């Protein structure tokens, strides 16, 4: 029996980090290779193995000569591995510091800017964000019978300069079925008009991201050199998402305790203790409530160490604890305060 553990070695790994989860690792994310990539992996005699929030592509160490040949003779469609990213967490948008509208959009990341570097993040900023968000449908081009606008479509190929030109049918029509998966730019009279990511039309669910691992000229040459020296080293890539920060708003509803002169919310435990300020009385759903809001925004986390108490300040004896440990902010419903800030409301009945 062949021992695959020793026969196959890692070519590259893509890992997702999200600081909402402990240690930043979660099985809520998974990668799916595009159909073209599945064929490429099979042609290269490679294997795919997935783990919590990561994917590994393995090569057959016993057939380096075949890998050398395939790399050296690969065409445009065989010069990159592409993967769609999915999540099982239905509240991904709520807990993540990203735009809230992802309809017909995906986050696009690639190793284009890393070159032959053996590791690094697949995005330019510290975290994946609005800058990495692309439409999945192309800009609708207008028919121009008089030829006032000359449209051009290019597919990004991972090279520092240049891209693969794509035919625009009848001068203004883009047939998505004819396009390879990937990141495209649309030009009008040599001026960039827009860009989009073409993903596979038939997918189970909606991907949140799309990743290209380019085997451009420099990467290919580095790999060929290492194969010839019999020391092909693995690439370690990562994507990082930042947890969304929101204001915590406690809404205290006096239901059983009627005589409330003064209340306070205080944080007794936690590495960075939270502070809350009183907003005062508010009428919500025809009921008088007493509200408090955190002085600063708080990052969503899967687990907190805070112990947030509701106290009644009456008399000379000081505060009396009404609730020793109140609920934490929920991520299932967040409300916008303004264009950039959000809050989560926590109802407390006393």
Short description:
The chain has 350 residues and is mainly beta. It has helices at 4-7, 35-43, 64-72, 92-95, 217-228; strands spanning 8-18, 29-33, 47-51, 54-60, 80-87, 105-110, 119-121, 133-135, 151-155, 164-166, 182-188, 191-198, 209-214, 235-241, 245-253, 263-267, 276-284, 287-294, 298-299, 308-313, 319-323, 335-336, 342-349. It is elongated and about 80 Å long.
Task: Describe the 3D structure.
This protein has 350 residues and is mainly beta. The chain has three domains: 4-136 and 200-241, no CATH class; 140-198, no CATH class; 245-349. It contains five helices and 23 strands. Strands 15, 17, 18, 19, 22 and 23 form a six-stranded mixed beta sheet that branches. A hairpin with a 5-residue loop joins strand 20 and strand 21 (319-323). Helix 3 packs antiparallel against helix 5. The mean pLDDT is 87.
Task: Explain the layout of strands and helices.
Blueprint: H1 4-7, E1 8-18, E2 29-33, H2 35-43, E3 47-51, E4 54-60, H3 64-72, E5 80-87, H4 92-95, E6 105-110, E7 119-121, E8 133-135, E9 151-155, E10 164-166, E11 182-188, E12 191-198, E13 209-214, H5 217-228, E14 235-241, E15 245-253, E16 263-267, E17 276-284, E18 287-294, E19 298-299, E20 308-313, E21 319-323, E22 335-336, E23 342-349
Parallel strand pairs: 1-14, 6-13, 7-14, 15-23
Antiparallel strand pairs: 1-4, 2-5, 3-4, 5-13, 6-8, 9-10, 9-11, 11-12, 15-18, 15-19, 16-20, 17-18, 20-21, 22-23
Helix pairs in contact: 3-5
